[in-house]
Design goal:
Length: 281
Amino acid sequence: MVSKQQAASPFLKWAGGKTQLLHELENHIPTFQNYFEPFLGGGALFFRLAAKKANFRARLSDLNAELVNAYKVVKNDPDELIDWLARYETAYAQDRRTFYYSLRNKAPNGVVQRAARLIALNKTCYNGLYRVNSAGAFNVPIGRYKNPSICNAVQLLNASTALRSTKAAISTSDYAAALSSAEKGDFVYLDPPFVPLSRTSNFVSYTQQGFTLDDQARLAKVFQMLHKKGCKVLLSNSDTPLARELYSGFDQFRIRASRAISCKGESRTGYKELLVRNFIP
């Protein structure tokens, strides 16, 4: 069985505040054999489950093709990936700013080079944020890190073990298409872009397509569909009137959390997330 430490995500910053909420999420985990996570991001819950439960199959997906490519490389080619990241770590130490913006402006073709670029940028960009512009180009400025761990070989190898031990199928897919094969008894964790707290807080640039309020309503319908099929569904969202209305009729739990995406420390606290589930653990 993979240990808790071994199952750490290679994209910890992308997990946002979820790493602080894992102990809360664990209170809502049912029994299952097949696990679906169609908004993969940092995969914090997947890696925690892999640490605790080795005998399940994972179906992991996301619309972000670069992220999906990186996970596939972590699973299948960790040694070559580590070699590239070790070079990047050395180059970053020599000249941080030149290295960062040179790497950000490149568009490598090979799958391993693409994955290494993405991970290196994730570890060195501002606040660990992933954001693209309308043309699909990564446009986050450099972060203020003295000695970031660009190449954590142990973490990458153990993440690879977790992905392979669960026979993880990793795909670039719309969440509805990814969940079409979910069946009765399967466990689905939905962690979509959150309902914005205000008009000025709407962050939808994780992919070029964004995630609108209409998409939130569509997701609620998919939740209902999965419920009718007998799937066990757990969803995270912001604790807003809209989110509570969309999932009325299901168990809802408010959890105090921090928002790692905020640039101001004081605005990361006092935030509440909403957990919704359709089952009794």
